[in-house]
Amino acid sequence: MHELSIAESLIGILVEEARNNGIVRIKKVKLQIGELAAVVPESLAFCFELVSRETVAEGATLEFESVAVVGFCDKCDESFEVRDQFFLCPRCGGPVFELVSGRELSVSSIEGETGEENGANQSSCCS
Ligand SMILES: [Zn+2]
Q: Where would you tag: which of 5, 11, 13, 126 has the fewest CB atoms within 10 A of its CB?
């Protein structure tokens, strides 16, 4: 079940992003998942819930956006959408030279609270 390792690396990214942006609690995460990434959203959401416990991302909602598979043909110098795993150029019938998108799994946005409203003690910092 590779969703578990995906969820773990996702937490790593989120914790890092939250730290960089001063987010104390992540509420919503938008993910882009390529159709070839072979990720089951429900399964990833389940694993995410497990591994996000006691992290800044605990209780965050995941939103999934699926990314179409796009191939590129070097003969025609054209990119096109690949449907139903049909990896041939619609123009010349040759094999797809390169995949432009479809395998990605990336965080497209994060929403959270920065916790600035309770900044009573802002002057002292603990670097
Ligand atoms: Zn072609």
A: 126
